[in-house]
Amino acid sequence: MSRRPEHQAPPELFYNQEEARKYTQNSRIIDIQAQMTERCIELLLLPEDTPCLLLDIGCGSGLSGTVLEENGHMWIGMDISQAMLDVAIEREIEGDVVLSDMGEGVPFRPGSFDGAVSVSALQWLFNADKKSHQPVKRLYTFFSTLYAALSRSARAVFQFYPENESQLNLLTSQAMKAGFYGGVVVDFPNSAKAKKFFLVLMTGGAAPLPKALGTEEDNSLEIKYAKREASKKLRGKPLKNTKAWLLEKKERRRKQGKETKPDTKYTGRKRSGRF
């Protein structure tokens, strides 16, 4: 049986309540999501020290959105799984979330976003889960509406898992047809375990693709992520998932006028293994 989830069921069925909760509390998945999102942010080339409004495509339970928050950005997420979005809301994420099938287009006004990220979602568009689904058409609909929803200097970065060369070619051809420039960046191309694919798309004209990781030993995603966490500590920012970090996040939510659970003596305490 294939280990790829997109071969097992449509995403809105595969990520049911049980799977959504299991996914969100898995420490390995949390770590991988954080590393992939940090790399997406790096490839976006956003202006330094400037909060941006980003679209998180296939946002799931908000694991990648949490990393966007930590980097000082605002975000809106879209996902096809209601169960995943329910978990995101339970987690009191700061971004707003929308139930939406990316194959039917990006449901936002033109020029709304300064950039877009996506972690482990793009490969689902190759599935024909319904008789009406035509992957080529769905890809073009997605990319053309995403192009419209981005500002004219924005980038979109997708970390994804292609199955073969033809999928890579189809992705890039449909993205270019929709108006984007760009291509695929492959980090650690010679490593079976660390190899990662990123589709980097640009709206503002052709530009050189960012350099892939993997040429230097100390350039690994794990080390880069650990260094960022350490630098936050040096800058006086609370580390992720500590009590100080949680209190700061809840205070930001209150300032945004969002419903937030009150602080108690249990805030920030380690929970048992059950979600």
Automatic annotation (TrEMBL):
Taken from the UniProt entry, a GO cellular component term is: cytoplasm
Q: Where is the composition biased (Basic and acidic residues)?
A: 257-266
| UniProt keyword S-adenosyl-L-methionine, yes or no | yes
Q: Localized where?
A: Cytoplasm; Nucleus
Domain 18S rRNA (guanine(1575)-N(7))-methyltransferase Bud23 C-terminal residue range list: 201-272
The record, for Pfam families, names: Methyltransf_11 (PF08241), WBS_methylT (PF12589)
Domain spans labelled Methyltransferase type: 55-129
Q: Which key words are in the record?
A: Cytoplasm, Methyltransferase, Nucleus, S-adenosyl-L-methionine, Transferase
Annotated GO biological processes are: rRNA (guanine-N7)-methylation
What does the record give as the function of this protein? Answer: S-adenosyl-L-methionine-dependent methyltransferase that specifically methylates the N(7) position of a guanine in 18S rRNA. Requires the methyltransferase adapter protein TRM112 for full rRNA methyltransferase activity. Involved in the pre-rRNA processing steps leading to small-subunit rRNA production independently of its RNA-modifying catalytic activity. Important for biogenesis end export of the 40S ribosomal subunit independent on its methyltransferase activity. Locus-specific steroid receptor coactivator.
Protein name (database record): 18S rRNA (guanine-N(7))-methyltransferase
